[in-house]
Write a structure and sequence with these properties.
7 helices, about 40% helix, alpha/beta, about 20% strand
Amino acid sequence: MESGFSPCFIIASVNLKTMTSITEMAPVVQQAESLAAQLEFTQSSLPEVGRLLHVLTSHITQGQIGEIGSGCGVGAAWIVSALRPDSTFITIESDRQLAKLVQQLFADKFNVRALLGDWRDLLTYAPFVFVICRWRKGKTQGTSNINKCSQTRRLFCIET
Protein backbone atom coordinates (compact mmCIF):
# COMPACT_ATOMS: atom_id res chain seq x y z
CA MET A 1 0.00 0.00 0.00
CA GLU A 2 1.25 3.49 -0.78
CA SER A 3 2.46 5.75 2.00
CA GLY A 4 0.02 8.37 3.23
CA PHE A 5 -2.69 5.89 4.15
CA SER A 6 -4.09 6.63 7.59
CA PRO A 7 -5.79 3.75 9.35
CA CYS A 8 -8.92 4.83 11.14
CA PHE A 9 -10.30 3.64 14.42
CA ILE A 10 -13.69 4.85 15.55
CA ILE A 11 -14.91 4.69 19.08
CA ALA A 12 -18.49 5.79 19.39
CA SER A 13 -21.05 5.44 22.09
CA VAL A 14 -24.12 3.67 20.83
CA ASN A 15 -27.52 3.92 22.45
CA LEU A 16 -28.89 0.39 22.62
CA LYS A 17 -32.43 1.69 22.14
CA THR A 18 -31.50 3.13 18.75
CA MET A 19 -29.55 0.03 17.73
CA THR A 20 -32.81 -1.80 17.15
CA SER A 21 -33.73 0.78 14.53
CA ILE A 22 -30.79 -0.26 12.35
CA THR A 23 -31.28 -4.00 12.78
CA GLU A 24 -34.25 -3.68 10.45
CA MET A 25 -33.47 -2.83 6.86
CA ALA A 26 -34.72 0.43 5.43
CA PRO A 27 -36.88 0.06 2.30
CA VAL A 28 -34.06 1.37 0.09
CA VAL A 29 -31.73 -1.33 1.47
CA GLN A 30 -34.37 -3.97 0.78
CA GLN A 31 -34.72 -2.68 -2.79
CA ALA A 32 -30.96 -2.83 -3.33
CA GLU A 33 -30.73 -6.33 -1.87
CA SER A 34 -33.61 -7.45 -4.11
CA LEU A 35 -31.79 -6.02 -7.13
CA ALA A 36 -28.58 -7.84 -6.15
CA ALA A 37 -30.51 -11.12 -5.78
CA GLN A 38 -32.18 -10.67 -9.19
CA LEU A 39 -28.82 -10.09 -10.85
CA GLU A 40 -27.13 -12.82 -8.78
CA PHE A 41 -24.63 -10.20 -7.67
CA THR A 42 -22.61 -11.73 -4.84
CA GLN A 43 -20.28 -8.88 -3.87
CA SER A 44 -22.74 -6.75 -1.90
CA SER A 45 -22.06 -5.53 1.62
CA LEU A 46 -23.03 -7.93 4.38
CA PRO A 47 -25.74 -6.69 6.76
CA GLU A 48 -23.12 -6.26 9.51
CA VAL A 49 -21.04 -4.03 7.24
CA GLY A 50 -24.18 -2.16 6.23
CA ARG A 51 -24.96 -1.43 9.87
CA LEU A 52 -21.42 -0.13 10.35
CA LEU A 53 -21.82 2.15 7.32
CA HIS A 54 -25.14 3.32 8.73
CA VAL A 55 -23.58 4.18 12.11
CA LEU A 56 -20.60 5.95 10.51
CA THR A 57 -22.90 7.99 8.28
CA SER A 58 -25.26 8.92 11.11
CA HIS A 59 -22.40 10.80 12.79
CA ILE A 60 -21.83 13.08 9.78
CA THR A 61 -23.89 16.24 10.17
CA GLN A 62 -22.75 17.84 6.93
CA GLY A 63 -20.25 17.24 4.16
CA GLN A 64 -19.70 14.72 1.42
CA ILE A 65 -19.26 10.98 1.70
CA GLY A 66 -17.77 9.10 -1.24
CA GLU A 67 -17.98 5.47 -2.29
CA ILE A 68 -15.89 3.65 -4.85
CA GLY A 69 -17.71 0.70 -6.36
CA SER A 70 -21.50 0.96 -6.10
CA GLY A 71 -22.20 -2.59 -7.20
CA CYS A 72 -25.97 -3.00 -6.86
CA GLY A 73 -26.16 -0.21 -4.30
CA VAL A 74 -26.52 -2.28 -1.11
CA GLY A 75 -23.72 -0.53 0.82
CA ALA A 76 -24.82 2.77 -0.66
CA ALA A 77 -28.39 2.15 0.49
CA TRP A 78 -27.21 1.64 4.08
CA ILE A 79 -25.35 4.95 3.84
CA VAL A 80 -28.31 6.75 2.27
CA SER A 81 -30.65 5.40 4.96
CA ALA A 82 -28.65 7.38 7.56
CA LEU A 83 -27.70 10.38 5.40
CA ARG A 84 -28.63 13.75 6.87
CA PRO A 85 -30.16 16.50 4.70
CA ASP A 86 -27.01 18.69 4.88
CA SER A 87 -24.79 15.84 3.68
CA THR A 88 -24.19 14.55 0.18
CA PHE A 89 -23.34 11.04 -0.90
CA ILE A 90 -21.53 10.34 -4.17
CA THR A 91 -21.01 6.78 -5.37
CA ILE A 92 -19.20 5.73 -8.53
CA GLU A 93 -19.36 2.48 -10.47
CA SER A 94 -17.37 1.46 -13.56
CA ASP A 95 -19.93 -1.09 -14.84
CA ARG A 96 -22.43 0.75 -17.06
CA GLN A 97 -25.41 -1.52 -16.30
CA LEU A 98 -24.88 -1.43 -12.53
CA ALA A 99 -24.32 2.34 -12.53
CA LYS A 100 -27.62 2.89 -14.37
CA LEU A 101 -29.51 0.63 -11.96
CA VAL A 102 -28.04 2.42 -8.93
CA GLN A 103 -28.94 5.78 -10.48
CA GLN A 104 -32.54 4.56 -10.76
CA LEU A 105 -32.48 3.26 -7.18
CA PHE A 106 -31.58 6.70 -5.82
CA ALA A 107 -33.38 8.86 -8.41
CA ASP A 108 -35.68 10.39 -5.78
CA LYS A 109 -32.86 11.31 -3.37
CA PHE A 110 -31.85 14.97 -3.74
CA ASN A 111 -28.53 14.56 -1.92
CA VAL A 112 -27.32 11.39 -3.65
CA ARG A 113 -25.36 11.18 -6.89
CA ALA A 114 -24.71 7.82 -8.53
CA LEU A 115 -22.12 8.14 -11.24
CA LEU A 116 -20.66 6.01 -14.01
CA GLY A 117 -16.89 6.17 -14.11
CA ASP A 118 -13.51 5.10 -12.89
CA TRP A 119 -12.63 5.59 -9.22
CA ARG A 120 -10.25 8.39 -10.21
CA ASP A 121 -13.26 10.38 -11.44
CA LEU A 122 -14.53 10.54 -7.87
CA LEU A 123 -11.49 12.63 -6.92
CA THR A 124 -12.90 15.58 -8.88
CA TYR A 125 -15.73 15.84 -6.32
CA ALA A 126 -13.39 16.15 -3.30
CA PRO A 127 -13.23 16.97 -0.48
CA PHE A 128 -15.00 14.17 1.39
CA VAL A 129 -15.55 13.61 5.07
CA PHE A 130 -14.61 10.02 4.32
CA VAL A 131 -14.43 7.60 1.41
CA ILE A 132 -15.60 3.97 1.40
CA CYS A 133 -14.16 1.39 -0.96
CA ARG A 134 -14.30 -2.36 -1.32
CA TRP A 135 -10.91 -3.89 -0.72
CA ARG A 136 -9.57 -6.48 -3.13
CA LYS A 137 -6.13 -7.54 -4.19
CA GLY A 138 -5.01 -5.23 -6.94
CA LYS A 139 -6.98 -2.29 -5.56
CA THR A 140 -4.15 -0.88 -3.45
CA GLN A 141 -2.62 1.42 -6.04
CA GLY A 142 -3.66 5.02 -5.66
CA THR A 143 -4.94 4.84 -2.08
CA SER A 144 -2.83 7.81 -1.06
CA ASN A 145 -4.60 9.87 -3.75
CA ILE A 146 -8.00 8.81 -2.41
CA ASN A 147 -6.85 9.48 1.12
CA LYS A 148 -5.81 13.03 0.17
CA CYS A 149 -9.30 13.87 -1.06
CA SER A 150 -10.76 13.16 2.37
CA GLN A 151 -11.00 16.13 4.73
CA THR A 152 -10.21 13.85 7.66
CA ARG A 153 -7.67 11.84 5.65
CA ARG A 154 -9.68 8.69 6.30
CA LEU A 155 -10.26 5.90 3.85
CA PHE A 156 -12.45 3.06 5.08
CA CYS A 157 -11.58 -0.15 3.27
CA ILE A 158 -13.98 -3.04 3.56
CA GLU A 159 -12.46 -6.38 2.70
CA THR A 160 -14.38 -8.41 0.13
